[in-house]
């Protein structure tokens, strides 16, 4: 039983590769590929697809990027809460 995750080679669907070896495999397999040109996903370079728009609808790496970007924007736009405890912080003693 293997503890590694496997993926399918984008250039040859008969190839099942351990994900940590996929980048090296893609370089070798791309040299023998004779099909239509595949686009490279900018969120995970091991994703090679024909239709990038369709791919981005399902790409978890794209979703994670968008979620982290939204979080960063939300944090930079956040204003400090206004404390209304009845005391005036500007009073002098």
Automatic annotation (TrEMBL):
Domain of life: Eukaryota
Domain CHHC U11-48K-type: 6-33
Pfam families: zf-U11-48K
InterPro entries: TRM13/UPF0224_CHHC_Znf_dom, Znf_C2H2_sf
Coiled-coil annotated spans: none
GO biological process: copper ion homeostasis
GO molecular function, one term: zinc ion binding
The keyword Oxidoreductase is assigned to this record: no
Presence of keyword Cell inner membrane: no
Entry keyword set: Metal-binding, Zinc, Zinc-finger
Name of the protein in its database record: CHHC U11-48K-type domain-containing protein
């Amino acid at each position: 039983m293997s503890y590694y995750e496997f993926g399918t080679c984008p250039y040859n669907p008969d190839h099942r590769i351990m994900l940590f070896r996929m980048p090296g495999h893609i370089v070798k397999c791309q040299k023998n590929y004779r099909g239509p040109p595949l686009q490279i996903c900018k969120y995970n370079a091991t994703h090679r697809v024909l239709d990038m728009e369709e791919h981005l609808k399902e790409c978890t790496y794209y979703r994670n990027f968008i979620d982290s970007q939204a979080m960063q924007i939300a944090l930079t736009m956040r204003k400090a809460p206004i404390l209304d405890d009845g005391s005036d912080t500007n009073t002098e003693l």
